[in-house]
Design a protein that fits this description.
Two copies of one chain form a homodimer.
Chain A (H helix, E strand, L loop, with lengths): L2 H16 L6 H8 L3 H7 L3 H25 L5 H15 L13 H8 L6 H24 L6 H21 L5 H17 L1
The structure holds a DNA duplex (30 and 30 nucleotides).
DNA sequence: AGAAGAATAGACAGATCGGTATACCTCTGT
DNA sequence: ACAGAGGTATACCGATCTGTCTATTCTTCT
């Protein structure tokens, strides 16, 4: 078991549940069962650890969603799978992603509330990657090319809305509502 | 000028821009131009100040939105106004609300990531109040009663999605996209 | 006039923060 | 066999955190 990975994993769990600024380094060390010297052997600063944690979550979440979408045909099936996946996540049916506490990237942007900051930009980059997964589904539907980006953003908006509704307002059916709306909206574009 | 209000105002501006945990009391005192003793005369702790700041923003935001909705007829006009208001907010055309840095309540839930916490519940309560404004519009549309709550949640989801898209992904047209989707979805319920 | 309340500046306490330093241990590769 | 990398535990540093305390001034009410 790699100590570096252990630190990232423990840090993520604590950050995700309590927020980044509310978690101190000593707490991470205690949880991970790792000495302070070891942390600073792998990372130059807390900031670097945070960056590594964001990257870790990016890879984990993206590869999870991508692999789920690969199980079905792009387009109709893919979009259903997208919202089903979010529904599973919200309702804690995905062990891999830890207990649902909202979107880690939205949460992190809320704490590092400045688009100039590298960590904020990492979060934006993650969202762009997720958007590209959605865009692939939209293209497969045969939507007119000039509308592709607009429709992709609209589906992304529904997905983000579902996550926030589930997190802040506790609506565990939000992903289903978003899915229903997605098909109503898409029908208008496909007619 | 009331010192208590001055503290709340300065604290809000700092919290909204930098996150709550990232802002120290001394920073608030310096910005507000107030002595430490005065702060602890009005508030028992930082926690109490935070609660007062959330309440302050709740009142300010709610009354702003409510008053905008009162200018138009409930129903069709009201829903258009809702998304126009969010669009104005996102694009910094509302001086009253300070520079857009996402939804303060979503951001705060991200930092106090536990539904048991009073501050988290204050944020949930704010969202319920906003939902009631939306529900009034939905009822005026003449939607079948059993669907009212479901449709209200759906519109709320679109609104939250727009805010997050604007904040995290920098899509300043998100509110317009949400408005378009709202009418497509509502048309399906009204037919 | 004089008491009370609200404000000031700033020293101070105790805890915790991120980060460094010291001294020692345990593997592993050549 | 032994050098070096990676690890442990822990003391320590200076800074900063929330919150308390002292001593003094300003304002306001009766």
């Amino acid at each position: 078991m790699d100590k570096r990975q252990q630190l990232i994993h423990s840090a993520f769990e604590l950050f995700y549940r309590n927020g980044i600024h509310a978690v101190g380094i000593n707490q991470i060390l205690q949880t991970a069962g790792v000495a302070k010297k070891t942390l600073y052997h792998h990372f130059a600063s807390k900031e670097e650890l945070i960056a590594a944690v964001v990257e870790y979550r990016d890879e984990k979440f993206y590869s999870w969603l991508a692999s789920r979408l690969e199980l079905v045909k792009p387009g109709y099936d893919g979009l259903n799978e997208l919202f089903d996946a979010v529904d599973d996540w919200i309702n804690n049916r995905v062990d891999l992603l830890s207990d649902f506490h909202g979107c880690f990237f939205i949460n992190t942007c809320a704490e590092f509330n400045d688009p100039q900051q590298p960590i904020y930009q990492q979060c934006q980059h993650h969202k762009k990657k997720i958007n590209s997964l959605i865009e692939r589904q939209i293209r497969a539907l045969g939507i007119l090319e000039p509308a592709t980006h607009h429709v992709t953003d609209s589906i992304s908006l529904l997905k983000e809305g579902a996550i926030v509704m589930a997190h802040v307002q506790g609506d565990l059916t939000a992903a289903n509502k978003a899915k229903d709306m997605a098909w109503i909206v898409l029908a208008a574009y496909l007619s």
